[in-house]
Design goal:
The structure is a single chain. Helix content is about 30%, strand content about 15%. The protein is an alpha/beta fold and about 210 residues long. A 5-stranded parallel sheet has the order 3-2-1-4-5, with helices on both faces. Strands 6-9-7-8 form a 4-stranded antiparallel sheet. Strand 7 and strand 8 (about 165-170) form a beta hairpin.
């Protein structure tokens, strides 16, 4: 496989992560293009860039989350690649596809990997198939009942969640239905996907 060289990189982020990416890139002789919202027009990360592109807007949805604006800025400024940093578009499969469709390199996981790992149930199944130890998913019937031998506590989790949202610890079977309902509602509001699942809860777990 031929290796493509990155000469100019668009950093689709702000703050300390954008500064760190720019520092590493410039140490390797890579020119950096930064982006900013109206609210971030005087932000420190812009001092680390060779070129700064205004995305407009005050909120993230109006700026850093606009895939079309990010791709347009990268193409217009002769970039070879887009680095999403973390947050914002870093876990967005459509962003990865749009960048590659424009003929640019996406610095991160493939769109397929992002989609797989963005669904906790699918990711857990893939881990199990690869022999990676996981906490097992507990099957829940349509009426909300669980197998009689399920030990408590258990954990209700949003399949598409993150940041601690859409999670409920269930201490007893009597709390299961309400935990499913509240976790699902929170996940739907936060992620647009109310799918939840149940797994064994590990007390005082470390990672």
């Amino acid at each position: 496989m031929a290796t493509r060289q990155i000469r100019r990189l668009l950093i689709a982020n702000r703050g300390e992560i954008a500064i760190r990416i720019a520092r590493t890139a410039r140490d390797r002789g890579i020119s950096c293009v930064g982006v900013y919202s109206d609210a971030d027009s005087t932000s420190l990360h812009l001092d680390s860039m060779d070129v700064a592109v205004a995305l407009g807007g005050e909120t993230a949805a109006e700026s850093y989350l606009r895939i079309d604006a990010i791709v347009d800025a990268a193409v217009a400024n002769g970039c070879d690649a887009v680095h999403p940093g973390y947050g914002f578009l870093a876990e967005n499969a459509e962003a990865a596809r749009a960048v590659e469709a424009a003929g640019l390199m996406w610095v991160g996981p493939t769109a397929e990997q992002i989609e797989l790992l963005g669904d906790k149930v699918a990711a857990k199944r893939a881990a199990e198939e690869s022999g990676v130890p996981t906490t097992p998913i507990i099957e829940v019937a349509a009426d909300g009942s669980t197998p009689a031998d399920v030990s408590m506590p258990a954990l209700v989790k949003a399949a598409a969640g993150g940041g601690g949202r859409g999670i409920r610890v269930v201490r007893g079977p009597e709390d299961l239905a309400s935990s499913f309902q509240s976790a699902s509602a929170e996940a739907e509001a936060a992620f647009g996907d109310g799918t939840v699942y149940l797994e064994r809860y590990v007390e005082r777990g470390r990672h």
